[in-house]
Amino acid sequence: HAAEAHRTDLMTITRYVLNEQSKHPESRGDFTILLNHIVLGCKFVCSAVNKAGLAKLIGLAGETNVQGEEQKKLDVLSNEVFIKALVSSGRTCILVSEEDEEATFVEPSKRGRYCVVFDPLDGSSNIDCGVSIGTIFGIYMIKEGGEPKLEDVLQPGKNMLAAGYCMYGSSCTLVLSTGSGVNGFTLDPSLGEFILTHPDIKIPKKGKKYSVNEGNAKNWDGPTAKYVEKCKFPKDGSPAKSLRYIGSMVADVHRTLLYGGIFLYPADKKSPNGKLRVLYEVFPMSFLMEEAGGQAFTGKQRALDLVPKQIHERSPIFLGSYDDVEEIKALYAAEEQ
Ligand code: P6P
What we know:
InterPro entries: FBPase_C_dom (IPR044015), FBPase_class-1 (IPR000146), FBPase_N (IPR033391), FBPtase (IPR028343), Fructose_bisphosphatase_AS (IPR020548). Keywords: Carbohydrate metabolism, Cytoplasm, Hydrolase, Magnesium, Metal-binding. The protein is an alpha+beta fold. It is built from eight helices and 15 strands. The protein has helices at 2-8, 13-22, 30-55, 73-88, 222-232, 249-259, 278-291, 322-336, and strands spanning 60-64, 70-72, 92-97, 104-105, 111-122, 133-141, 162-168, 172-177, 183-188, 193-198, 209-211, 242-243, 262-265, 295-297, 317-320. The strands form three sheets. It has an eight-stranded mixed sheet, with helices on both faces. The protein has a five-stranded mixed sheet with strand order 12-11-13-15-14, sandwiched between helices. Strands 1-2 form a two-stranded antiparallel sheet. Helix 2 runs antiparallel to helix 3, helix 3 (30-55) packs antiparallel against helix 4 (73-88) and helix 5 (222-232) packs across helix 8 (322-336). The longest helix is centred in the first third of the chain and has 26 residues, at 30-55. 6-O-phosphono-alpha-D-fructofuranose binds next to helix 6.
């Protein structure tokens, strides 16, 4: 009967969030409404990504985004969808998107207490070859009442109330944490609902895979070079780690979360702060890793302790299995001495 009950007692993401809300009797349901609008955005992008090949949505839009990268039509579409969904929720006051140079301050009549930072379609350079891509998001509460200010989105990642990603691949999987563990939901297209498929995800304490762009090896600093060398030629006779690198952060992080191991985007001589963006790549993934029992390190400090100064600033990042990140922390600490 348990299996039967499981099949008929569908735990959807909406029910899950409502359950979480019921733990906070004082809450007015705003957070639930906000998350429902994020979920709506993910469903729309999932459908657009799946049709992209057919609908000729791929291919360059001819514009370039603030990062100076060729903007593909799906980028433009996804960004617009999320901005509109978040504003229409009536629960947000500041939005930061990877696609927009400036933060969006929501008009007063539609304002709420939450700030959302997001990358609407991370890894989009992989769209044309069918590699999994994804939406990454993080949610802050505005610091104090009154006029929303840029400082409200320049908070350390540890102040996030929730973070998650939606991966558009062979299936559409939304991984979410609201601060009490990590849960994975898979879209059932026939229902149009995200169903709980990965309850209470915990990352293995140690993994057998490392994930880094080896093409940057000539520019790595000492500790990173030493760590990768150790992965390939372990001194203690343990087996070498396997290299798995997709080049799409959501896909690389999702595999690391489920199978264990470590994902690295280090600083290098060309880019002293690495490549990944603090607010909407490093923080949400670090939040999830810590909630799943892993950890996230910048080379200098715990990633979630970082206080950003600009909304598009970058940071090196090492995240994944607790013991694996511990090893690279020790190499950076030794470098300090
Ligand atoms: P590289 C994709 O463009 C992205 O922003 C992340 O999704 C991914 O982890 C990283 O860049 C890949 O960068 O330099 O290895 O191609």
